[in-house]
Design a protein that fits this description.
Length: 690
């Protein structure tokens, strides 16, 4: 530490810090030595009480204070680094080639405000206080109005951009004459460090000249930002460029590819002997373009699978070769950790790729690949009972299958409930329920999962929903669900009957009075239909290859035609009456048209049950008395039905394809006509009595 008046100086190997000890003062400046190899050897006070610094290069330097024109000395104190000739060191730090720039001509002939501001900065570096102060006052009088996008703000930003975007003046490959440059180095890292130092000195000049506090804001990329913030951004871009230029060898290829991509996209392909790297690291104001290029490069690598495949290959080698050859212990534990880290690396790459592809057609395909690889990568840890490692990955990448399997293997209801809460908004509950169903563990699903969560999930699973409703004591809902199950059942008659019986029991347990009657009435047709099917003669079932124990649910049409089929040799008028009643009451897909066709089919089969040749036509009704046709008609009359409403028109019956062999028999036509006349007269008589 070195004290000089009311100022105290502190230094490390390459930087000097000045603290003003006067009241209401603050830290004013920090001076960094340049070039990078320079370091401080020693220091002391000179004859004029100015600090003298001995450095490894260029030698002895003197620190002097500088004030802004017209400003209070104690408030605007700044530091500059000067050599013994008061010119060389700062000129070197700012890297202005005075042999290429006629400073005097620049000051007298140029009408460019930015060029004159650059000249003022050069005078500042030369410690020419009177001239740079006068030039600043000429360019930007203190009396001039300031505000957003003022000439001062725009000029300051433009020069800042020029400083970080210029070409190295000493590079012989340049086709242009870089007359004013912040760097003369030929080595990239040194060029970037020179730009950093030049920009720092530029900011110091703005503060010393009293311009810094007058800056307001500018419009940049369609947004209003403070000018000082934009200058800080320029400084950060230089630092970012230094980091990119100094990446590790493992990443240099990736960065080089991204640099080339940026230059190509800008249309700035360099002419030999310059390279894309030369062009990119000159224009530092746009160094952030490399971010999109790196993302694009990552997408390409992940799409091609080149990087991921290498990691997956290493994962497989660890799994199939290293682990089996390793005894339990620290080494094997290390291999399990390696499996975790490799899997994490691949899955993280997938996650980044999916985020970049969101909204594109390829997203779905990559998502499917991710889900397949996700389980494959975590499964070895699961099988090795490395449950904590497996769940850490499964939780991070939402592999619900692994989480459920860990819960089952550890028999941990607490862990499952934790995940149900943790991933409630990601559908974990539905995944758990579907997993139990896929595994055929329906009992475990109903016994171990919470009722509230099951209720919503089981809405589409009637076969399980009624059990959950019974468990909750909701008998009416369970009865309705069972009735729906019965309506949907087509595979087994026995199962349909069970559903109907249980639905009836639920109705009896859950309702009473009129509501109970309504529910029982709704169930009655389905129950009767099941009973009719169950009562089919065994001869009919055998003739049609139907097993009574495993027969499927017959449709009303199938059941009717089986009852009146020729195979039902013992069929009588009661079977045909039942068939006609069923045709009337059943819900048929073809509606009334199908109903009429069924009636015609039933009556045709009734006619064909008897021989109509040789019957006595003198007494037609007596002759037809024992035919199934007339017995069925009379049976309908006895039960209070009106046969004429169920019989097809006589012409339709005679023209029926099934009766084609009888169509030319006039005796048959006569007898059939007599039967129809009998029915018509009988119903007319009944109508008169009514």
């Amino acid at each position: 530490m070195l004290a000089a008046g009311d100022r105290v100086f502190i230094h490390d190997r390459r930087q000097i810090l000045c603290v003003n000890m006067a009241p209401a003062s603050e830290l004013k400046d920090a001076v960094r030595l340049s070039p990078p190899g320079e370091r401080i050897i020693g220091w002391g006070l000179g004859a004029d009480a100015a600090p003298l610094v001995l450095t490894s290069h260029p030698g002895l330097l003197r620190l002097t204070a500088r004030t802004a024109p017209g400003a209070d000395h104690s408030q605007t104190m700044n530091l500059s680094l000067l050599g013994l000739d008061q010119t060389a060191p700062l000129s070197q730090s700012f890297n202005v080639s005075l042999t290429q720039v006629d400073l005097e001509e620049l000051l007298t002939s140029s009408s460019d405000v930015k060029a004159k501001l650059r000249a003022a900065c050069i005078l500042f570096c030369k410690n020419d206080l009177p001239r740079y102060s006068a030039l600043v006052e000429e360019l930007f009088p203190r009396s001039a109005a300031v505000g957003p996008d003022s000439e001062l703000d725009l000029t300051v930003v433009a020069l800042s951009r020029d400083i970080i975007d210029d070409y190295p003046a000493a590079d012989p490959r340049l086709l242009q004459d870089a007359t004013v440059s912040s760097t003369t180095s030929l080595i990239l890292l040194h060029q970037l460090d020179d730009k950093r130092e030049a920009h720092r000195l530029y900011v110091a000049f703005l503060k010393a000249a009293g311009l810094w506090d007058r800056l307001t804001s500018v419009t940049d990329r369609d947004a209003v930002v403070t000018t000082t913030e934009l200058l800080h951004e320029h400084h950060e871009k230089v630092l970012s460029a230094m980091a990119l230029a100094n990446v590790s060898p493992q990443l240099s290829e990736v960065v080089s590819a991204a640099v080339t991509r940026v230059v190509e996209e800008r249309g700035e392909l360099p002419l030999r002997p310059l390279t894309a790297r030369d062009v990119f690291f000159c224009h530092l104001s746009a160094v952030d373009d490399i971010i999109s290029a790196l993302i694009g490069r990552e997408e390409e690598l992940m799409t091609s699978g080149a990087t991921a495949n290498e990691v997956v290959r290493l994962h497989e080698l660890t799994r199939r070769q290293a682990l089996p050859a390793t005894e339990p212990g620290a080494e094997r534990t290390g291999l399990y950790q390696q499996l975790l880290e490799l899997a994490d690396l691949v899955l993280a790459g997938y996650t980044a790729q999916l985020a970049a592809l969101r909204g594109t057609e390829r997203h779905a395909a990559v998502q499917a690949e991710f889900e397949a690889d996700r389980y494959h990568l975590i499964e070895p840890l699961l099988e090795a009972e490395q449950y904590e490692r497996a769940t850490s990955l499964a939780e991070k990448y939402a592999d619900f299958r692994v989480l459920v399997e860990v819960c089952e293997r550890t028999n941990s209801t607490e862990r499952r409930n934790k995940y149900l809460a943790q991933f409630a908004d990601q559908g974990f509950a539905s995944f758990v329920f579907n997993w139990y169903l896929d595994q055929g563990r329906r009992g475990q699903l109903l016994s171990q999962c919470r009722q509230a969560e099951l209720a919503g999930f089981l809405h589409d699973y009637r076969g399980l929903r009624w059990l959950n409703e019974l468990e909750a004591g909701r008998f009416a809902q369970a009865g309705d669900t069972l009735a729906q199950c019965a309506d949907a059942e087509t595979e087994f008659l026995t199962r349909k009957k069970t559903y109907l019986s249980l639905s009836k029991l639920c109705a009896l347990a859950g309702q009473q009075g009129d509501e109970l009657e309504v529910r029982l009435t709704k169930l009655k047709p389905a129950i009767e239909l099941s009973q009719l099917q169950e009562q089919l003669p065994s001869s009919v079932l055998e003739a049609h290859g139907i097993d009574a124990e495993t027969m499927h649910v017959l449709s009303p049409r199938e059941l009717i035609l089986l009852y009146v089929s020729p195979e039902n040799e013992g069929a009588n008028e009661f079977d045909f009456e039942r068939a006609l009643e069923l045709a009337e009451s059943a819900t048929l897909e073809g509606g009334d048209e199908e109903r009429e066709q069924l009636r015609l089919e039933i009556w045709c089969r009734a006619v064909l049950r008897d021989l109509w040749t040789g019957l006595d036509t003198d007494r037609p009704l007596e002759a037809c008395r024992d035919t199934l046709l007339l017995r069925t008609i009379r049976g309908l009359q006895r039960s209070g039905r009106r046969p004429l409403h169920l019989l097809p028109e006589l012409n339709l019956l005679l023209d029926c394809k099934q009766l084609s062999k009888l169509r030319g028999d006039r005796d048959f036509a006569f007898l059939l006509g007599a039967v129809y006349e009998y029915v018509e007269r009988l119903e007319a008589h009944v109508g008169e009595q009514a």
